[in-house]
Amino acid sequence: MKQSLRRLLTEDLPQNYGANPNVVRDTDKYVEEYVHGFVDKWDELIDWDERAKSEGDFFIEELRRRDVKRVLDVAAGTGFHSIRLIEAGFDVVSVDGSPNMLAKAFENGRRRGHVLRTRHADWRWLNRDVMGRFDAVICLGNSFTHLFNERDRRKALAEYYSALVHDGVLILDQRNYDAILDKGFKGKHKHYYCGEQVTAEPEYFDEGLCRFCYSFPDGSRYHLNMFPLRKNYTRRLLSEVGFQRIDTFGDFKETYHEDDPDFFIHVAEKRYDSVDPQANSPGDLTK
Ligand SMILES: C[S@@+](CC[C@H](N)C(=O)[O-])C[C@H]1O[C@@H](n2cnc3c(N)ncnc32)[C@H](O)[C@@H]1O
C-alpha cells in the first residue's frame, strides 16, 4: 500500500487547503478532503432516519418502475443509499474514490447486517476497475460537483454510460447552484443534510467554485471545495454524452419553481429510440 494512502486511512489528518483555499479547484482534491475526522462526522451531518423520511421511496420507485435489479452506487460515501437499496431488495455494488468513505460504508453495512460489495475506483477510470454492466448507476448526495473541469465531467459521464446495460438509467443529483449563484444561499438544507445541530453553508462562491463549510456541535468545522454546476449545463452534458431522455426533478417533485428546490435530481435514460422522446419537450439543453 502506498505510504500516502496508508496515512490517509490510519491517521487523523487535518484538511489542508493551503494559504488561499479559494484557489483550490482541483478534481483530485476530494480524496484528501474526506479526512478521517470529517468522514466520522458525515453521518451526523446527514442523519440517516431524517434523510430516509425526506427522500421517501423516490429512488426505489424510479428504479422499480424500470425493473432495475443491479445498481452501481458510484458515490457510496458512508453507504446510505447502498444500504437502503440492498434492504429494498436490489443487488448493489458500492464504489467510491475515497478509501476513508468506503471503509465507513463497509462498517455501516456490517452494523446493519450486510456485507457491502465495495470497490475502490475513481469515476474517470470506472470501467477499468469495476467489471460488469448495471441496470442503474446512481451518483447521489451532490457528488458530481467534485469534478472541476469539463473534461473530467465528460469522462465520468461516459464511464457511467458505458457501465449501463443498453436500456439502463443514471440517477444523478446536485445542489441548486443556480439559486446560490443568482440569488444567494437561503440555508434551508432540509432534504439531504438533515442533522439538527449541523450547519452546511457556502463560505465563498463564484462561477468556478462553491466552498462549503460544515460546522458541528462540538465546534469542529470542515470544508468542501466544489464546482457549482448549473442545472441546464448538467442536463446538456448528460445529453451530449448520449443519454436520450433526461427528466429533472426538484426536491423529488416533477413540477417546481426554479429557485425553490435545494436539490435537482436528474433521471437520465440510455434507452435509444429512433424517434427522439424529448423532441417536442420544452426542456432547454442548450444553455
Ligand atoms: C458529498 S459525498 C456524498 C456521499 C453519499 N453519496 C451521500 O449522499 O451521503 C461525495 C462522495 O463522492 C466521492 N467522490 C468524489 N469524487 C469522486 C471521483 N472522482 N471518483 C470516485 N468518487 C468520488 C467522494 O469520495 C464522496 O464519498
Short description:
By secondary structure, the chain is of the alpha/beta class. The chain contains 11 helices and 10 strands. S-adenosylmethionine binds at residues 30, 34, 46, 75, 77, 80, 96-98, 101, 122-123, 140-143, 146.
Question: What is the fold's blueprint, element by element?
Answer:
Elements: H1 3-10, H2 30-33, H3 36-46, H4 48-55, H5 58-65, E1 70-73, H6 80-87, E2 91-96, H7 99-111, E3 117-120, H8 126-129, E4 134-139, H9 150-163, E5 164-175, H10 177-183, E6 199-206, E7 209-215, E8 221-226, H11 231-241, E9 245-250, E10 263-269
Bound molecules: S-adenosylmethionine.
What does this structure look like?
With 287 residues, the protein is α/β, with parallel strands linked by helices. It has one domain: Rossmann fold (3-Layer(aba) Sandwich). Helix content is 33%, strand content 23%. The protein has eleven helices and ten strands. The protein has helices at 3-10, 30-33, 36-46, 48-55, 58-65, 80-87, 99-111, 126-129, 150-163, 177-183, 231-241; strands spanning 70-73, 91-96, 117-120, 134-139, 164-175, 199-206, 209-215, 221-226, 245-250, 263-269. The strands form two sheets. The chain has a seven-stranded mixed β-sheet, sandwiched between helices. The protein has a three-stranded antiparallel β-sheet with strand order 6-7-8, with no helix packed on it. Helix 9 links the parallel strand 4 and strand 5 (164-175). The longest helix has 14 residues, at 150-163. The protein is globular. The relative contact order is 0.14. The model has no long low-confidence stretch (mean pLDDT 90). The protein binds S-adenosylmethionine. S-adenosylmethionine binds at residues 30, 34, 46, 75, 77, 80, 96-98, 101, 122-123, 140-143, 146.
